[in-house]
Specification:
By secondary structure, this protein is mainly α. It has one domain. The longest helix has 27 residues. It is flat, with a radius of gyration of 23 Å.
Length: 85
């Protein structure tokens, strides 16, 4: 059978170097998407505009805006209902 030095050759030997710039770009894109969702949810929670107006302005489906509004409203109630330890 011989040496096991080539055992991982197919996995590690053919892998390209880790591209840190690509990873950073993906993280930034994900954070931008998260912040955009948060902005839409806050806009909806304020109640100044209708869900339809917000959806049209941000090019998002009205149901998605309603879901985000519900989640942010639930999250706020959790913050204020927490007891001191």
């Amino acid at each position: 059978m011989g040496s096991n030095s080539h055992q991982f050759g197919g996995v590690w030997g053919s892998s390209p170097m880790l591209n840190t710039a690509n990873i950073k770009e993906k993280i930034i894109t994900k954070m931008d998407n998260y912040l955009d969702s948060y902005r839409v949810a806050l806009e909806a929670a304020k109640g100044i505009k209708t869900i339809q107006e917000i959806a049209k302005e941000y090019d998002v489906h009205p149901v998605q805006v309603s879901d985000w509004k519900k989640k942010i409203s639930e999250g706020v109630s959790d913050v204020f209902s927490a007891t001191k330890k």
